[in-house]
Amino acid sequence: MKFHHIIKISVLLVFMLGCRNNGQEVPEIVLEDVLPTEINTKETEPPELEILVTETDELKIPEIKEFLIFDSMEQNIVFESLRNDNLDIYIMNEDGSNERRLTYNDAHDSDPNWSPDGTAIVFKSDRTGNRELFILNETGIEQITNHLASDFSPKWSPDGKWIAFSSDRDGDSDIYIYNIENENLVQLTNNVVSDFSPDWSPDSQKIIYVSNVEEYVYKLYIVSLSDQVSELYPLEKGLSPSWSPNGKWILFTNGNAMNANIFKVSLDGEKVVQLTFEKNGYQNTDPSWSPDGEMIVFYSNRVSGKGIFIMNSDGSEVENISREINHDWFSDWGP
């Protein structure tokens, strides 16, 4: 399969949670008044479905000489790590064993996400001088976006046909989807505020995302691919949403720069369950479901450094699976 190139930017939503902040204090996001009785519709009407790129011949991608060829990826957790003083992509088993480095580049490779069949990984990299999206598979690494703006937070659709991502190519961060088969790009949101951190519904027909509706106020919206209408999710406040494989739950992070914890909420917004309870400056962020929905992988700094943890879907049996404390984060659980 051949992939071409479109565009992208970087948004680090984790600066809100202290994972990558610059020491700036972030006001607390309080979990309250989050269950309105009605779902509100955004006032801004979405644009008509528009294909942004149809002629890929116009895209000129610098040659990438560095690539990695591998014959198989048996490990099922992908993550980024700074363990070799450079940000690269790694994989490992769910118990932390059999770690394997996948990218070898002086640039920063991050935001990894599995394809639904487990044969490829999409990720963000600045190896061409700008933050773009790349796909790593058994034939090597290929660039799929090319823009002066930044592209980031890629997520593969469960049906394997699309990659959703955030980009500031329109002046502020919006949600886009890239078609794997025909290489077309569609813009799903077009707001004066920043929209980021997309994640797919199990049927690949909707995307939940975060919208920075005002300074330090982050709300969850769901946009439908069929009509591009965004609706306010019943749970208004949250970051890093992750839709469960059975479609019944959504994981999210809530907190501030000092403390952040992971919650799950039923799809109708009526039931909110707190899964982690860290205090005293600890962060629990960026949750992702296992393919069967029975477990969750996430980042935490509870053991004197950044690390990858797993737990049951009810929050029990938390285990640190990182072998390199203070270096690993942003993980995804693949098939």
Describe this structure in words.
By secondary structure, the chain is mostly beta strands. The protein has a single domain, classed as Neuraminidase, CATH 2.120.10.30. A 4-stranded antiparallel β-sheet has the order 3-2-1-24, with no helix packed on it. A 4-stranded antiparallel β-sheet has the order 4-5-6-7, with no helix packed on it. It has no helices and 24 strands. Residues 1-49 and 53-71 have low confidence and may be disordered.
SSE blueprint:
Elements (H helix, E strand, L loop, with lengths): L76 E5 L6 E5 L7 E2 L7 E6 L6 E5 L6 E6 L2 E4 L7 E6 L5 E6 L6 E6 L5 E3 L6 E7 L5 E9 L2 E8 L5 E8 L1 E5 L5 E7 L4 E7 L5 E3 L9 E6 L5 E6 L6 E6 L6 E2 L7 E6 L2
Antiparallel strand pairs: 1-2, 1-24, 2-3, 4-5, 5-6, 6-7, 8-9, 9-10, 10-11, 12-13, 13-14, 14-15, 16-17, 17-18, 18-19, 20-21, 21-22, 22-23
What portion of residues belong to β-strands? 35-45%
Q: Give the neighbour order of strands across the main sheet.
A: 3-2-1-24
Total domain count:
1
CATH architecture annotation: 6 Propeller
Predict the CATH topology.
Answer: Neuraminidase
CATH class: Mainly Beta
